[in-house]
């Protein structure tokens, strides 16, 4: 368990891009084309992130695009990356799980050190030096609790999609896709195309919610066309779309056997008499995405609510640190590409001591503005049921890792007087488990009636004690040839 | 239709892994979670408190629900760990340590 130093070629300023999804790839291409060396660091075996997650090479997929959207964009990114790799302008470090980015007190030999565990074993750490850091760490799924949500067979919508894209495997034969948000559409159509029977797509947003935002939606005809395309696929696969509905409960013994769904009334409560039981072996559920902000938080970057704060150049408030994509606010792949491109260009200029001209990235700036406006509008459409927490019974486990029930959380608030999420955590252990509250934070906050304050999670992923013990007090010295 | 047909997959030669002592077939490149799902297995952990069954939840390494014991090493995330020929995969009860 020793620390090894991985060093970039010493000729150009080195930008470490963390995350090889749409934002990280766009940033890498923009930076590498403009005079910096990019070290692209990603936890997966292959680049692509979640959006462009590729099937494992051993599966020999000749038509991976069947599982994807915007495939031509991926091909363009992949071609560009390959060219930069061949020219030595980019170093790709896959299967590296970054647990900490360190701002060095002594900027010589480098202002930043990125610490990453080597996958898949993750019991050895490497240190990567960089002159600047660009965080493209993406997002993970938010799932609000409901009775039965811990049963095997209940998976996150993105999780079902990840195993389908990466492993070419289905979670089961009959699926219900439920929750709220645009991700449910590709998940439902993807599962159906791959041979699953999708019993229903259960979306809590009601038709009136879309109608009220018609002007916002109409301003993005490409997005409307995309939505219409999904709707057509749902019809083709015979998937009923239940708008204004929610899952009340998942049923089963050792695994999921059925779910109960009901229509939601204007008060956000289930309408009596509308509950229906749907037999299924899979429930793919999600209520939107949450930005990965741990590395930014560890560097001391300012957060705006749940996302990393950035300026017009995608700079965080920490000098030398940029951020792009879902980490700076969830807005989809098109927004991530635009933000990544701008961040990469800004970083390339500033690391070479120049001041970038924003006019040079005007098209990306326009795409960024449009996408942000569209997603701000969507935020008002897609929402979990207003009174979802009332449906969580006292017996329901809300913190999956520590097996803390809603009853225990309510007792901490009601009898013990906890008034904030941190106190609830200290009294119940909710959020103290392996996932460090990433999976339960929103649920526990809702059940407790507290504001969801993003927890500080350092290190950003579990690190063996032996790795921490092996960390030197100072960055490793430069090699003699530098 | 199945996912392999949809992506026109021509996998390399399959190999065998063991799950709780029985042999199951694995396709190269698949994670342990994908291998178990393809064999119809959805749970491979009993929780520390109540001994409740768990399997994949988030699928991307964040939630730690899919922890499993592989070649006597407990607490491996099945969704991230590639399956290797002959791997001995066992349901993890509690912490996975003899405690």
Automatic annotation (TrEMBL), chain A:
Pfam families found in the cross-reference section = Fer2_BFD, Pyr_redox_2
**Top-level taxon of the source organism:** Bacteria
Keyword field contains Oxidoreductase: yes
- Give the InterPro entries listed for this entry: BFD-like_2Fe2S-bd_dom, BFD-like_2Fe2S-bd_dom_sf, FAD/NAD-bd_sf, FAD/NAD-binding_dom, Metab_Enz_Cyan_OpOx_G3PDH, Opine_Oxase_asu/HCN_bsu
Q: Does the keyword Oxidoreductase apply?
A: yes
Q: Which CDD domains match?
A: GlpA-like_Fer2_BFD-like
Record-annotated BFD-like [2Fe-2S]-binding domain positions: 397-444
Q: Where in the numbering of this chain does the FAD/NAD(P)-binding domain appear?
A: 14-328
- Which key words tag this protein in UniProt? Oxidoreductase
SUPFAM superfamilies (UniProt xref)? FAD/NAD(P)-binding domain
Protein name listed in UniProt:
Oxidase
Q: Which organism is it from?
A: Streptomyces antibioticus
Q: What is the lineage of its organism?
A: Bacteria, Bacillati, Actinomycetota, Actinomycetes, Kitasatosporales
Automatic annotation (TrEMBL), chain B:
Which Pfam families does this entry report, sorted A to Z? Fer2_4 (PF13510)
Q: Which Gene3D superfamilies match?
A: 2Fe-2S iron-sulphur cluster binding domain, sarcosine oxidase, alpha subunit, N-terminal domain (3.10.20.440)
Q: What is this protein called?
A: (2Fe-2S)-binding protein
Keyword Oxidoreductase included in the entry's annotation: yes
Going by the UniProt record, its keywords in alphabetical order are: Oxidoreductase
In residue numbers, the region (Disordered) covers 79-99
GO MF annotation list: iron-sulfur cluster binding; oxidoreductase activity
